[in-house]
Amino acid sequence: MSPATRAVLSLGSNLGDRRATLQGAVDLLSAGEGVTPVTVSPVYETAPVGGPDQGAFLNAVLVVDATVGPKDLLELARSAERAFERVREVRWGPRTLDVDVIAFGDVTDDDPELTLPHPRAHLRAFVLRPWLDTDPGAVLPGRAPVATLLAGVEEADTEGEQELTVREDLRLRLPGEAGRVG
Ligand SMILES: Nc1ncnc2c1ncn2[C@@H]1O[C@H](COP(=O)(O)OP(=O)(O)OP(=O)(O)O)[C@@H](O)[C@H]1O
Ligand SMILES: Nc1nc2c(c(=O)[nH]1)N=C(CO)CN2
């Protein structure tokens, strides 16, 4: 069997039943061929960054071990988006589900179809904060420790545009984990 590569996926939703969509995405991605789920982060409520006026997002990070390649993982991410009928209309506009590949092992690649790490991950508290929760020692390949990047984003965010709120009441679970209490 080929060795597994640890990969980080970011999940976002700001339309419909946002938590149900994120949980559905975790379930679909975890069932993907060559994918073993490792950890899911807490869920954060986040103000939209960029794009038109739109509702708040729920964001989380799913960490997986992949025995498939990065493009297979992107295709799996796209198929999860299609399952939730994501329609691309406006850049950075509202969406039922967005799944981005944030990092794939320590791979760096500037291929526009799949840039690794994700070209805007280092600027986004809604990616860095939940990722840091899953792994306090996480490093964004080719850049810096996630903790350092998050501190920089927070310091630069003088208007509080990237503030986020943890939603302990909306925890996600990995398949096979015990359900929520209450
Ligand atoms: N690391 C990556 N993860 C996901 N998509 C990527 C990545 N690198 C490049 N892409 C490409 O980016 C294109 C646009 O992706 P998408 O529609 O999800 O963008 P978005 O979520 O609206 O904005 P953003 O890219 O800023 O998160 C896709 O066609 C995809 O091939
Ligand atoms: N808060 C928040 N803002 C965004 C998000 C997102 O997931 N959360 N996704 C975007 C494009 O991927 C653009 N802006």
Automatic annotation (TrEMBL):
<feature type="domain" description="7,8-dihydro-6-hydroxymethylpterin-pyrophosphokinase">
    <location>
        <begin position="91"/>
        <end position="102"/>
    </location>
</feature>
<dbReference type="InterPro" id="IPR000550">
    <property type="entry name" value="Hppk"/>
</dbReference>
<dbReference type="GO" id="GO:0016301">
    <property type="term" value="F:kinase activity"/>
</dbReference>
<dbReference type="GO" id="GO:0046656">
    <property type="term" value="P:folic acid biosynthetic process"/>
</dbReference>
<dbReference type="InterPro" id="IPR035907">
    <property type="entry name" value="Hppk_sf"/>
</dbReference>
<keyword id="KW-0067">ATP-binding</keyword>
<dbReference type="Pfam" id="PF01288">
    <property type="entry name" value="HPPK"/>
</dbReference>
<keyword id="KW-0808">Transferase</keyword>
<keyword id="KW-0418">Kinase</keyword>
<comment type="pathway">
    <text>Cofactor biosynthesis; tetrahydrofolate biosynthesis; 2-amino-4-hydroxy-6-hydroxymethyl-7,8-dihydropteridine diphosphate from 7,8-dihydroneopterin triphosphate: step 4/4.</text>
</comment>
<dbReference type="GO" id="GO:0003848">
    <property type="term" value="F:2-amino-4-hydroxy-6-hydroxymethyldihydropteridine diphosphokinase activity"/>
</dbReference>
<keyword id="KW-0547">Nucleotide-binding</keyword>
<dbReference type="GO" id="GO:0005524">
    <property type="term" value="F:ATP binding"/>
</dbReference>
<keyword id="KW-0289">Folate biosynthesis</keyword>
<protein>
    <recommendedName>
        <fullName>2-amino-4-hydroxy-6-hydroxymethyldihydropteridine diphosphokinase</fullName>
        <ecNumber>2.7.6.3</ecNumber>
    </recommendedName>
</protein>
